[in-house]
Write a structure and sequence with these properties.
Outer membrane efflux proteins (OEP); four-stranded antiparallel beta sheet; 507 residues; elongated; two-stranded parallel sheet
């Protein structure tokens, strides 16, 4: 059977209780002395240990900035959460004023973030609720009663009045000193839960910021695709006009004209489809920024920005910069405090109480010295038998703590996986983009050669059509890769915690 921790020895309690003596006036003073000398029961919290890797694996992308290696013969200097990392408004690295304005609007208008804020405020208020249990409760009030007793009651006498007033002005005070630390552990748990709620709010904020940037860059990528398809429609219209003139001159065939017409209408259909996707991205941006959609629009703006460099820092900083990790760690601390709360149930409940005031049958003598009344008292209650309930609750708290430790470490593992995934995405996408640009240049050269051959009457329009289709496919892939690079860049910033760190948690 597990024996709960003893915050104070029985001898210490007996010695200090001797200060009470026979005079109840020293009762509260003795209780304060005893309370000051007893630490809360239950284990004190120690953050679960985790050793991060010395460096990230997937750091081959040119737009990723990694810290220099440790010098030979030198020693590692512990990095603070913000050393060499993004701070505050991380989206400003993209140098897009329109994105900056949209991101800045989230904090003041987004309802999801407002909900997270109110949830945190409620958790913070719970600290004050728990802390109030450390102090006595005081109440006071008058009682005015008029009694009429039966004249035929048992043992009635003519000297005893049958009608009289009872006027009482009385105050009560009661206090349950926190000898075993139950209230202090409850305050501790409420504080840690409030910090976890604050980290949750930061995580919601970061997610909304990343969603905004992702939808915005997808919209601008759609604009780049619209620009490409619009230029392609112009070129195909020119090709169709040329083919129709050649048909009238007897050089081309009706098959050539039909093929040119089909290619033109196909690209026009793609243009309509991309416009529909752009509208959805615009709606997403407007919703996150809490704009009224009928009056909201984003000007046409193709994605022609340079991809910024993202500092990734050292892996140990990730534990201090991810709000979801911070939330899991704070909930682990709160679960540890719950163990002490359950252990405190093994100790007696000690309460102090006092009453004082005035009582009289006449208003004129109510507030006078002879009408004064008072009482002081103390009570101790120990639960003797509960069929193992306290042991079960204590074991439950310990298992809950261990489960939360696993949740905390699991959040760390997922965070490192997230960062490595985004680093790998950027590395692969940047290599693919370089290769795709070569494919676009080759396809453009092939189309130029086919056009010269067609105009010279050397080949059929089918060769031109094939070259045009190949070029358009490669150009669309290049635009898509550029958009995916920006999306992966935003995802990397999000996986690194954005501009947040644990120093922003409320104290």
């Amino acid at each position: 059977m597990t024996v709960p921790e003893r915050p104070c020895s029985r001898r210490t309690i007996a010695t200090r209780w001797a200060w009470v003596g026979k005079d109840g006036r020293f009762l509260a003073f003795a209780a304060v002395l005893l309370l000051a000398g007893c630490k809360p029961v239950g284990p004190n919290y120690t953050k679960p240990s985790y050793t991060p890797p010395p460096s990230y694996k997937e750091t081959g992308a040119p737009t990723v900035v990694v810290p220099p290696p440790n010098p030979n013969g030198g020693s590692w200097t512990p990095a603070s959460p913000s050393d060499g990392m993004l701070r505050g408004k991380w989206w400003e690295i993209y140098q897009d004023p329109q994105l900056n304005a949209l991101e800045d609007r989230i904090a003041g208008y987004n309802q999801g973030l407002r909900q997270a804020l109110e949830t945190y405020m409620a958790a913070r208020d719970q600290i004050a609720v728990a802390r109030s249990l450390l102090y006595p409760t005081l109440s006071a009030g008058p009682t005015v009663t008029h009694y009429k007793a039966s004249e035929r009651r048992p043992l009635a006498s003519v000297q005893t009045p049958t009608s009289y007033n009872d006027l009482i002005l009385e105050g009560q005070a009661s206090w349950e000193p926190d000898f075993w630390g139950r209230v202090r552990r409850t305050v501790e748990a409420a504080h840690e839960n409030a910090q976890a709620s604050a980290a949750d709010m930061a995580n919601v904020d970061l997610s909304l910021q990343a969603q905004m940037a992702t939808a915005y860059f997808q919209l601008r990528g759609a604009d780049s695709l619209i620009e490409l398809l619009s230029e392609t429609v112009k070129d195909l219209q020119s090709q169709l006009d040329l083919t129709q003139r050649r048909l009238k001159g007897g050089v081309a065939t009706e098959v050539d004209v039909a093929q040119a017409q089909t290619q033109l209408e196909t690209v026009r259909a793609q243009l309509v489809d991309v416009a529909q996707a752009r509208a959805q991205y615009e709606h997403a941006v407007g919703t996150i920024a809490d704009y009224k959609l009928p009056a909201f629009s984003i000007p046409f703006s193709p994605l022609n920005l340079p991809l910024p460099k993202v500092p990734v820092g050292v892996p140990s900083q990730l534990l201090q910069r991810r709000p979801d990790i911070a939330a899991a760690e704070r909930r682990t601390a709160a679960a540890n405090a719950q163990i002490g709360i359950q252990i405190s149930a093994f100790y007696p409940n000690i309460s102090l109480g006092g009453t004082g005031g005035f009582e009289s049958t006449h208003g004129g003598t109510w507030i006078q010295g002879p009408s004064a009344l008072w009482s002081l008292g103390a009570q101790a209650t120990e639960l003797l038998f509960d069929a193992g309930q306290r042991h079960a609750l204590t074991d439950q708290a310990r298992h809950t703590y261990e489960a939360q430790v696993s949740a905390y470490k699991g959040a760390i593992f997922l965070a490192f996986e997230d960062v490595e995934d985004q680093l790998a995405s950027l590395r692969v996408l940047e290599r693919e983009a370089v290769v795709e640009q070569l494919a676009v240049a080759s396809a453009q050269h092939s189309l130029d050669v086919s056009n010269r051959r067609y105009k010279g009457g050397v080949t059929s329009y089918l060769e031109v059509l094939t070259a045009e289709t190949t070029l358009l496919q490669n150009q669309q892939t290049a635009v898509s890769l550029q958009t995916r690079q920006f999306v992966a860049s935003v995802a990397l910033v999000r996986s690194l915690g954005g501009g947040w760190d644990v120093s922003q948690l409320p104290k």
